[in-house]
């Protein structure tokens, strides 16, 4: 069986009367126009380098690049990392048939950054270099990333390194206090009033305060990921309420009422206004709060100020629309540390680009036998049922993500743990001394595959939580096959803990004071760019007057690398 589908490309040749180089954005799990309108690095580079053709390619099964699945056997099985990379190689083949053997540099951020790096690794004859921004390729289980790496990065964004002296510590103290206060009906009434909760939304059981604490901190991952120096809808449009802009430096805005130290916090005790509670891993106890009256609680100035600050922190995300009259913990908790985060979905910054040509009918991408782009012929992979799809797969924003994750077992684990030793979260979401094996089961464990949506078929019947196929295919943490790649990471971004570095001390807790450019291999031109105040692939965004100094520096380094790689490969 072999058929084709239309893959959407967007091309801009306004800087290229004669094409001498191509910048190709390797699309990930968003409609391609989102990358056209957000990847400022490409526009700004091309505007100063005549002859640069800009191309954005949409990922298969995303938005308008979705095949006709009705009547296609195992129609969901053809959306894999391997086949997406092969699509991009075909795109370059088509471009070179038109423009000659021009050099091409791949650009990508987040999952797109992973694709850019892997594209250079697997197709070095097609692409001459890659800018892999916020690419968490060292987040797969067998790379053994720090399981609390995401939480440490979030704590960095909410702490002194991110511009807020005592915020993380105050929040770390607030959460066990909320848990303890919420054990009584008096305390629950107090919390409901202080957090402006919708009637009945807190609950009436002793764990109500704990649930509220989890809800408040549950949005922090996304706030840190979106901690840009300009107002942005980049993350809110992906996992939040929609096209509503967070303020500039949203983590700092989150911390604006928590700058003064209000609590004393140790591993086993939290003290506020002279009143202490004991903390034993994920439980609390107190001799004061179980019998405290409303007037007792209201007479504690630091507690009152602390809870007001926690509400303010929660509101930056939960009330980004500025329309809420009350808050419901069950409806404003974007992560809670318990659910998988999609590393990147729809992006939407207010800057839009006109005059971009959209090609809907070329080049055709091939759907065929999976062995053409890396059939998984090992024990972990399970054959899919031989079924014919009776429905059309609904392409849309992030529509490529589920099939990629389900087919390739793309499982990132660098954020699984929080609350034990990151200095922000509480309670711990894991047992003491828990390991990756505790979370995933022993190596070789097999889980249930993703359920096929109604009328569709093709997902493997079983899954491999250890991602052994991707580990084997891309070589775990070996960089032996890489050349002409820049791995960039902003250290306020939770995904930076799964980035590529020459020294993993870069992601240790606290502020980073090392060089912004770190050499990984000079002979192969592989390096790491570090943006200490960078959020999720800040370097790919349009330049902004509020950028921290490392952002223009990073773009300067990336410009120079593109110049170098394309000059060396230019046809004579």
What features would you describe in this structure?
The chain has 572 residues and is of the alpha/beta class. The chain is globular. α3 crosses α4 (111-122). The two termini are 41 Å apart. The protein has helices spanning 32-36, 40-48, 81-99, 111-122, 149-157, 167-181, 185-194, 208-217, 220-225, 236-239, 250-254, 294-298, 301-318, 401-408, 436-440, 468-474, 550-569; strands at 2-6, 9-12, 21-26, 52-57, 104-109, 129-133, 264-266, 269-272, 275-280, 283-285, 357-359, 364-368, 447-448, 462-463, 485-490, 517-521, 526-531. A hairpin with a 4-residue loop joins β16 (517-521) and β17. The strands form 4 sheets. It has a 9-stranded mixed sheet with strand order 11-2-4-3-5-6-15-17-16, with helices on both faces. The chain has a 4-stranded antiparallel sheet with strand order 7-8-9-10, covered by helices on one side. It has 2 domains: 2-136 and 356-410 and 467-569, 3-Layer(aba) Sandwich (Rossmann fold); 149-331, Serine carboxypeptidase S28, SKS domain (Four Helix Bundle (Hemerythrin (Met), subunit A)), CATH 1.20.120.980.
Compute the separation of the termini in Å: 41 Å
**Helix content class:** 25-40%
CATH topology-level name of the largest domain: Rossmann fold
CATH class of the largest domain: Alpha Beta
What would the principal axes of the Cα set say about the shape?
A: globular
Structural class: alpha/beta
CATH architecture of the largest domain: 3-Layer(aba) Sandwich
| Main sheet: strands, sense, barrel | 9 strands, mixed
Tally of separate domains: 2
Adjacency order of strands in the biggest sheet: 11-2-4-3-5-6-15-17-16
Radius of gyration: 25 Å
Tally the beta strands.
17
Instruction: Write out the CATH superfamily name of the largest domain.
Output: Alpha/Beta hydrolase fold, catalytic domain
**Beta-strand residue percentage:** 5-15%
State the low-pLDDT regions, or none: 335-364, 368-385
- The mean pLDDT is 91
> How many DSSP helices?
17
